[in-house]
Design goal:
The chain is an alpha+beta fold and 349 residues long. The relative contact order is 0.11. Helix 3 (137-145) packs across helix 4 (195-207). It is built from 8 helices and 17 strands. Strands 1, 2, 3, 4, 5, 6, 7, 8, 9 and 10 form a 10-stranded mixed β-sheet that branches. A 7-stranded mixed β-sheet has the order 11-12-13-14-17-16-15.
Length: 349
């Protein structure tokens, strides 16, 4: 058995999104049928990003398993013969069977296009959001910069999602204008349901003066969807790329008004050890932060995590999900991934 990774571009106009749905044709469905026909096997792809109806992609990622002997780099040419012209495989390669596109550290980049002029252009109707009021790009730039860093983005998440952890890291959030087109570019380690479109909708309201630019920080801090702007239309959004981090970041030092911590991953590869120091954290965020960081380090390969808790909240025998924290003689704590300890050969998900 082999696992093949595909880099996919598509025009999402006529699709109900990536994920299989009963109310229309999905990108995933088309790929499954094309691969099954090509390989004479029942194929089910696993995607990295489940884009919404009408959203486009230049570089979404998916994988599938096959017994085929076709060289990995030839899949893109062979599969494109079975796909419609609005879906194109840009690249194909082989990855380990343990590789999962949604369970690796990666950087996703989205771009959103706004056509800001008095009258629409017909050829832009499926690839940009037409907005006829003048937008102040400088205000939008300043407001967008507030979002950079690690924050709880609950205010920018659709209330329909059931995700428990709404913390994400934004590496870049820029706004530029060329002619009549405003492009908002956002890169992050992950995105919540409709997060980019809600951010764009909020920036548009700031750009037209309906929301003060100073309110962006208040909206972020509120952790309340009702405080943010509307969700921008889907057709302006394109998933540009997903890049996997090839190496672990040795040291992560994070600080914002709600929490401060340090993660040391320098011994993960050589000894399976990682170190976590929690300097401070707001009481309501403590349990979520502890579990999120523990899962992150475990996912990155740490079988033992040594924790120094300067807040004094961690206690011997405390449990979070499937982790138990044990007090050491020096006052620090250790926890291990009990799933991995139970079965060394089982893939940690």
């Amino acid at each position: 058995m082999r696992r093949i990774r595909l880099t996919i571009s598509y025009d999402g106009t006529n699709y109900v999104g990536w994920q299989l749905q009963p109310n229309g044709v999905a990108i995933e469905e088309v790929l499954n049928k094309a691969l099954s026909k090509l390989l004479k096997e029942e194929i089910q792809v696993i995607g990295a990003s489940r884009t919404d109806s009408g959203v486009h992609a230049d570089g979404n990622i998916c994988v599938f398993d096959t017994e085929s002997r076709i060289p990995a780099d030839k899949f893109r040419f062979a599969l494109n013969e079975f796909l419609p012209p609005n879906i194109v495989v840009q690249d194909s390669d082989e990855v380990p069977l343990t590789f999962h596109p949604r369970k690796v550290n990666s950087r996703k980049t989205y771009e959103y296009r706004i056509l800001n002029r008095k009258l629409p252009l017909p050829k832009e109707r499926d690839y940009s959001y037409f907005y006829y009021y003048d937008l102040d790009v400088e205000k939008m730039k300043r407001a967008a910069s507030v979002l950079v860093g690690e924050h709880d983005f609950k205010s920018f998440c659709s209330i329909r999602t059931d995700v428990e952890d709404t913390v994400r890291r934004i590496y870049e959030c820029t706004v530029r204008k060329e002619g009549d087109v405003i492009t908002i570019r956002i890169s992050g380690n992950g995105f919540l349901y409709n997060m980019v479109r809600i951010i764009v909708g909020t920036l548009v309201k700031i750009g037209c003066g309906m929301i003060p630019e100073e309110s962006m920080k208040e909206i972020l801090e509120a952790r309340d969807r009702a405080k943010a702007g509307p969700r921008a239309p889907a057709q302006g959004l394109t998933l540009k790329s997903i890049y996997e981090e090839e190496e672990l970041i040795p040291v992560i030092d994070e600080e914002n008004p709600h929490w401060s911590y340090l993660l040391d991953q320098r011994e993960v590869t050589s000894a399976g050890k990682a170190y976590m120091t929690i300097r401070y954290v707001d009481a309501p965020d403590y349990d979520r932060l502890l579990l999120r960081l523990t899962k992150q380090l475990s996912r990155n390969g740490a079988s033992a995590i040594i924790i120094t808790d300067e807040t004094g909240r961690l206690t011997d025998g405390m449990t979070e999900d499937y982790f138990t924290y044990h007090l050491l003689e020096d006052g620090s704590f250790v926890t291990r991934d009990e799933h991995r300890e139970k079965d060394k050969t089982e893939e940690f998900e």
